[in-house]
Design brief:
Blueprint lengths: L14 H16 L12 E6 L5 H12 L3 E5 L13 H8 L5 E6 L4 H6 L6 E6 L5 H15 L6 E5 L6 H10 L6 E5 L8 H8 L5 E5 L11 E4 L10 H7 L7 H4 L7 E3 L20 H19 L4
């Protein structure tokens, strides 16, 4: 039972529960009108202590499509936290008014802390560089819809793998399914953190390789997960200039890929995917956005006990 449960990281959901959520999301995709009233009378609070467009609007649209209502904030400077109110007290207050809370914070561990003070479910909408479980559900639903299975996939993560919470979350989730392989494509300065290898990949004997050039591995991938390479993460500009173009996906690099590979991106993008790629049928990042709303609809309905 998912009713009343906090969702702080992907590991909070079993494989069976992820399948349950994604199956419900697929039912909603097929017949959305049947779910218009399942959260009637329920209230979602969106507490966003960090800027967001897609995630916040996706949560709000999800609740509204389920027949519920939304309250919250997208700018913490307009709240009592600017007066010094603690997160614990904010959560105690807000949870008195609502049935479920979606929260984003720049501070790692903030969602876990909030869950200790909330009698209603906390859904982590991103906590610093840690986890982003609903983006992971979005990614899994997209893979299920477009690739047909979570298993036997070769997944390439490209760009900022050190600080990318979406990369960490999806790696953790996909490592639970058999025969998946990972290719981590990044400059050394932004490589996958050692704790991900030591705590997740190595103990499970998962196959993974690393690369510094996207072109060298494109033909091996079933899924390419792009992220932005951030100039500010480099120690010197010379290294950034040397590597930055290696992580810009364009039509020439797409010629190296399999015909059925899909390209995912958590968005927003800057220049790491050229607009010319948008018309390629393998570009799935805007479909991914829509699937994200359905995944959040399913999760909200489950944790509030509406379905």
């Amino acid at each position: 039972m998912l009713t009343g449960r906090h969702v702080i990281e992907p590991e909070n959901l079993s494989v069976a529960e992820i399948d349950e959520i994604c199956s419900l999301a697929e039912q909603i995709i097929v017949d959305p009108n049947s779910f218009n009233d399942v959260c009637r009378g329920k209230i979602l609070a969106t507490l966003f202590f960090e800027p967001s467009t897609r995630t916040r609007l996706s949560f709000e649209a999800a609740m509204l499509h389920l027949g519920g209502t939304v309250e919250g904030f997208s700018d913490a400077s307009n709240t009592s936290t600017s007066k010094g109110e603690t997160l614990a007290d904010t959560i105690r207050v807000v949870s008195s008014y609502v049935d479920v809370i979606a929260m984003r914070s720049p501070k790692e561990g903030a969602a876990l802390l909030a869950s200790k003070y909330s009698p209603v479910p906390i859904i982590n909408a991103g906590d610093g560089g840690h986890f982003h479980p609903t983006q992971t559900l979005t990614d899994l639903l997209t893979i299920r819809r477009l690739r047909g299975s979570y298993e036997g996939q070769t997944i390439g993560f490209c760009g900022d793998l050190m600080f990318g919470r979406t990369v960490h979350s999806l790696t953790q989730a996909m490592s639970r399914y058999p025969t998946n392989k990972f290719v981590f494509i990044s400059p050394k300065e932004l490589s996958i953190p050692e704790y991900m290898k030591e705590n997740i990949l190595d103990p499970k004997g998962i196959q993974y390789t690393t690369a510094e050039r996207l072109e060298d591995v494109m033909g091996d991938l079933d899924i390419l997960y792009m992220t932005r390479v951030q100039k500010e993460r480099f120690f010197n500009e010379e290294d950034y200039i040397r590597l930055k173009d290696s992580y810009i996906l364009d039509s020439e690099k797409m010629k190296l890929a399999k015909k059925d590979m899909i390209v995912l991106h958590p968005l927003p993008r800057v220049n790491e995917i050229q607009p010319e790629v948008d018309d390629d049928p393998r570009a799935a990042y805007f479909k991914q956005v829509k699937f994200g709303m359905y995944a959040r609809m399913a999760l909200i309905a489950k944790v509030t006990g509406s379905l």
